[in-house]
Design a protein that fits this description.
Layout lengths: L18 H10 L4 H6 L9 H14 L13 E6 L10 H19 L3 E3 L3 E2 L4 H10 L3 H19 L9 E2 L3 H16 L3 E11 L4 E3 L4 E2 L2 E2 L7 E10 L5 H6 L9 H11 L2 E9 L6 E6 L10 E4 L6 H5 L5 H13 L2 H6 L5 E9 L6 E7 L10 E4 L5 H10 L35 H14 L3 E6 L5 E2 L1 E2 L9 E4 L3 E4 L27 H4 E3 L6 E4 L3 E2 L1 H4 L3 H4 L12 H7 L4 E5 L5 H15 L12 E4 L2 E3 L2 E2 L11 H7 L1 H10 L7 E2 L2 H18 L6 E2 L5 H22 L3 H21 L1 E2 H15 L4 H10 L16 H4 L3 E8 L2 E9 L4 H9 L2 H7 L4 E7 L3 E6 L1
Parallel strand pairs: 1-2, 1-24, 3-4, 12-14, 24-25, 26-28, 29-30, 31-34
Antiparallel strand pairs: 5-6, 5-9, 7-8, 9-17, 10-11, 10-16, 12-15, 13-14, 18-23, 19-20, 19-22, 21-22, 26-27, 31-32, 33-34
The structure holds one RNA strand of 86 nucleotides.
Length: about 850
RNA sequence: GCCCGGAUGGCGGAAUGGCAGACGCUGAGGUCUUAAAAACCUCUGUCCCAAGGGACGUGUGGGUUCGAAUCCCACUCCGGGCACCA
């Protein structure tokens, strides 16, 4: 019992011991000494446990947020990125889910048919690694973690259409991964190839280029090795141009993400041409973005792995040296190669002809040329390329400038603009003209021509792991690679006991899985034992949500067309390239197959900031996670939600603070007390002037909260409600008319409903309303009411504020100036000087410029 | 190296050309209480002043403007992305 103001608090009042809280801590096994000491008891005005359970139950049983196609209402498809079921949500995750839930509720109240589904990216390494450690089957651990996470989401008050729940590891889902694979294969977009790949020795699997960060495995941090393996790829490069060009259409994506994708695709325009190797019938192709500098070529360089190298040096006296260099380069990671700093290379003893002037130039191999980009061979023009300059300087090769540098240029290679010199028919041309002229020259003589090149590589999808979707292919000694017939899908993942990968997929050891018959000739054959990259699973799930239980097709086109594209997609910026690029690619392929109308899946993307604690991103690996459960218990989900919204701009990183939750909890208490009549007085009389001011402020608040939510400024929408509540409390203390009280409280609860839904719903019911607040219409503001009659006009002298005065909002310019001039304080400042200019911005400001 | 973003009280932040510091937290004092907790009230950027008030103040230096946290130029620091990509 609380004393002093007569308000009842449900706290226990004991500072050091609160039986209910301590027993909760014991029962739940929450080892959070810090918060148990800080909040032995947190008295609150309302019983959050009861009302949260009540409303969560009602939203679920009344299926308030389960939706279906409804052409009569505008749709709003609201999705947060497919989460991996780690089983442990922390406050950083909740930030994301709070935003998503707020939008679901807000748009629902605005009359939209809102689809907000949830599902699980449930294949992947953590469960498999846990299985290796503990022997627990990944399915068992994954499914229990899914249940745990669902519980945490429910406790937050997050509402989803659970009828559409998906999980990648279920055969009903991954069957369509396999179907998708077969369709890509049919269209020539899936292929198997022996290629040097990134091998993670820790995870015992290959990685896509995108999953290698600074030469290390993105997941586990182990140094990645290069291996030559036969692997499955998706031909995403075929879509490089469309993926790049369509970025321009995604104008509701953050520029940052679009830039990152542009850089990742890395299109460069240039020319390629063939160079003949002297004294042999060998030839190789080079790519350059600077065909205008071709007369400056003084040598050529092949990547050490270039397929021609072996033939070029076979039987020559440099063979041993060249092949030795090649082996050393191969054994080094790209990271180390770069880290070496100084250029290195070996002369092959061979020369090639420059096609424009038939000049013979020496051919080197050097590891600064990468096999994976362009043609793996370059023309070296040290005059205009710093890398080539460095190499030429070290190995004593000629340097010819073919672009005139400015007179004061003091650097080495000149890469800027200038006219061509020492370049025969290009001399005097500017860069652009010279590039075009040379490209056509090459084309006319059939030695080359304009070429586009991409940094983007094909998507390597094979993984030598167990807990993933099996690749539905069969290798037959007679027929070669044969796809599994569609009607035999899914190829189910067999149950196994030993999950240890030993250089090959664990499935390879499962004879009953591997041995099969060829669907074409009926002879004995072997199944593919690699599984797919989990990014395949997450590249189309949002389409499946639109028709999640379809047993005959991946999804129904009409349903997908109704819901797609996603109107709001929310997730972390860490997926800016990987997931978002793959999903865009797969959507385009499905579009090309005639399965869906949209070409871009995500109309509007929002990337939220990280949550920081102790100076680092909140993450399990850093050991600084704040689990939500003890906070739900003490403050309730609504206070947690409000603080998640309040803590800062959603795009920015934010810092977790226990005290912040105390603040939002106090706010809800104050609101509760005000609405339930615990504070002040409500009288039946007609509204007074201050009552009408409160009403006006309420309508201004509708406007502010509405526009703030629309611009994702949740951190200012919450304070708007706090301010209004504070004003309401002030009015109540002096006595407020019933009429105004009812209107203000009604509006306040509507505005609060998407942010703190349990308290809002309970209070809505307690104030005598039988309707479900969640489906009440969002309030509209009355512009006349919201308009201010009187405003504060500031009066400046030489730009400094010297006085303020209340004036009518529709004051004329002349009146404003007259009033300002007549103020005593202004006279004091103006007297003795000459007023040279008066700036009037009625009704807000008058500024006297005095000398 | 290149590209992008950021820097505002003791803290999170607000203000997008017009009252800098909304709102919240923290801290100090007070009311109530035997006492504490909770709640409530007052104060809480720095400096000067008995007071009324004044000066300074949004990373640093310059500029534009009647007026700049906000626009422009240069710099410093922090964060992110890309990087022998021909």
């Amino acid at each position: 019992m609380r004393q002093g103001t007569g308000l009842r608090r449900r706290g226990c009042g004991e500072r050091l011991r609160c039986g209910r809280h301590l027993s909760y801590l014991r029962e739940s096994g929450v080892a959070d000494a810090d918060i148990s000491q800080r909040y032995p008891c947190w008295p609150m005005s309302y019983d959050h446990r009861t009302i949260e359970a009540k409303w969560q139950q009602r939203w679920a049983t009344e299926r308030t947020f389960s939706v279906s196609v409804d052409e009569s209402r505008p749709k709003f498809y609201n999705v947060s990125m497919y989460p991996y079921p780690s089983g442990e949500l922390h406050m950083g995750h909740l930030r994301n889910y709070t935003y998503v839930d707020l939008l679901t509720r807000y748009r629902t109240m605005q009359g939209y048919n809102v689809l907000s589904p949830m599902g699980w990216d449930s294949f992947g390494l953590p469960a498999e690694n846990l299985a290796i450690e503990t022997g627990i089957h990944p399915r068992v651990s994954t499914e229990s973690q899914i249940e745990a996470m669902k519980g945490q989401l429910r406790s937050l008050g997050a509402v989803y259409d659970w009828d559409r729940e998906l999980a990648s590891h279920q055969p009903e889902y991954y069957r369509w991964d396999q179907w998708l694979f077969l369709k890509l294969y049919e269209r020539g977009l899936a292929y198997k190839e022996k290629a040097p790949v990134n091998w993670c020795p820790n995870d015992q699997t290959v990685l896509a280029n995108e999953q290698v960060v600074d030469g290390h495995c993105e997941r586990c941090g182990a140094q990645v090795e290069r291996r030559e393996l036969s692997q499955w790829f998706f031909r995403i490069t075929e879509y490089a141009d469309r993926l790049l060009d369509d970025l321009d259409r995604l104008d509701e994506w953050p520029d940052r993400v679009r830039t990152m994708q542009r850089n990742w695709i890395g299109r460069s325009e240039g020319a390629s041409f063939t160079m003949q190797v002297a004294d042999t019938d060998l030839a190789f192709e080079v790519f350059t973005t600077r065909p205008d500098t071709i007369f400056g070529m003084t040598f050529a360089v092949l990547a050490p792995e270039h397929p021609l190298v072996e033939e070029m040096v076979a039987g020559t006296e440099v063979e041993e040296e060249v092949m030795g260099y090649r082996r050393r380069a191969a054994s080094m990671s790209e990271m180390d190669r770069v880290a070496e700093g100084e250029k290195s290379g070996v002369f092959t003893g061979r020369y090639a002809f420059n096609p424009v002037n038939e000049r013979k130039v020496p051919i080197y191999i050097a590891d600064y040329v990468l096999m994976g980009y362009g043609t793996g061979a370059i023309m070296a023009v040290p005059g205009e390329d710093q890398r080539d300059w460095d190499f030429a300087e070290k190995y004593g090769v000629d340097i010819i400038r073919t672009v005139q540098p400015p007179e004061d240029f003091e650097g080495k290679a000149y890469t800027g603009e200038g006219v061509a010199i020492n370049s025969d028919f290009l001399d005097g041309m500017d860069r652009e003209t010279a590039i075009d002229t040379m490209a056509s020259w090459l084309e006319e003589r059939k030695v080359g021509g304009p070429t586009l090149n991409y940094r983007l590589r094909d998507w390597l999808i094979s993984r030598q792991r167990y807990w993933g979707c099996p690749i539905p292919m069969i290798e037959c000694g007679e027929c070669g690679l044969v796809p599994v017939p569609e009607e035999e899908l899914p190829v189910e993942l067999p149950d196994i006991d030993d999950f240890r990968p030993e250089g090959q997929a664990p499935l390879a050891a499962v004879e009953s899985f591997v041995n099969t018959t060829c669907p074409r000739c009926g002879g004995p054959a072997l199944r593919e034992t690699d599984t797919m990259d989990t990014f395949v699973d997450s590249s189309w799930y949002y389409l499946r949500y639109t028709d999640p239980n379809n047993a005959d097709a991946i999804f129904d086109r009409d349903k997908a067309d109704y819901w797609m594209p996603i109107d709001q997609y929310i997730g972390g910026v860490e997926h800016a390239v990987l997931h978002l690029l793959y999903a865009r690619f797969v959507t385009k392929v499905l579009h090309d197959m005639g399965l869906v109308s949209v070409e871009e899946p995500f109309a509007r993307l929002f990337t939220q900031g990280m949550l920081v604690k102790d100076g680092a991103k909140m993450s399990k690996s850093r050991g600084n996670v704040v689990a939500p459960d003890p906070y739900y218990e003490r403050f309730g989900a609504d206070a947690v939600r409000l603080f998640e919204l309040f803590m800062g701009p959603p795009t920015d990183d934010a810092i977790w603070s226990d005290h912040g939750v105390e603040g939002t909890s106090r706010f809800l208490d104050r609101l509760w007390d005000a609405v339930t009549g615990e504070i002040g007085e409500i009288h039946p009389g007609s509204p007074t002037d201050p009552d009408r001011d409160l009403r006006a402020e309420t309508h201004r608040t509708i406007q502010k909260v509405t526009t703030d939510i629309d611009r994702f400024a949740f951190n200012t929408a919450v304070p708007a409600l706090m301010t209004l509540t504070n004003l309401l409390v002030d009015r109540l203390r002096e006595g407020l008319s019933r009429e105004v009280f009812d209107e203000v409280v009604g509006i306040l609860l509507h505005l609060l409903s998407p942010m703190a839904p349990h308290v809002a719903h309970e209070l809505w019911e307690m104030t005598g309303h039988g309707t479900m607040l969640a489906t009440e219409p969002w309030p509209a503001w009355d512009a006349d009411l919201a308009k201010r009659d009187v405003v504060t006009m500031i009066i400046q002298v030489n730009g400094k504020v010297r006085d303020k005065v209340q004036v009518d909002a529709d004051i004329s310019s002349d009146d404003a100036e007259t009033i300002a001039r007549e103020r005593d304080r202004i006279r004091d400042w103006v007297d003795g000087g000459e007023v040279r200019k008066v700036i009037v911005r009625e009704p807000n400001l008058v500024n006297f410029v005095v000398s």
